Amino acid sequence: MSTFKQISVEETKEMISSDIYLLDIRDKGSYDSGHINGAIHLSNENIDEFVMNADKEKETIIYCYKGISSRDAAKYFSEIGFREVFSMQGGYEKWVNSDV
Asked: 0.70 exceeded by the pTM?
């Protein structure tokens, strides 16, 4: 059974210092306007290439605007064989408004 975990902005900030995938699934304009340092922008245009070349054993954190779409994306990634998948609760909006 495929599963993913939801994690807080604070937990994400702790994890991004390690070797992980940090995936931004917002639209390109939003990504270009601002994103979490080190994030990879994923879209319909590059998702297949990313999945084909990615290390599925590496921890993967996915975020969107508010943490809703990232849950669906995290479920998808766990279903296609990514081992440790996380959806960041609150999304980028919460990230930029966080004091941590």
From this structure: yes
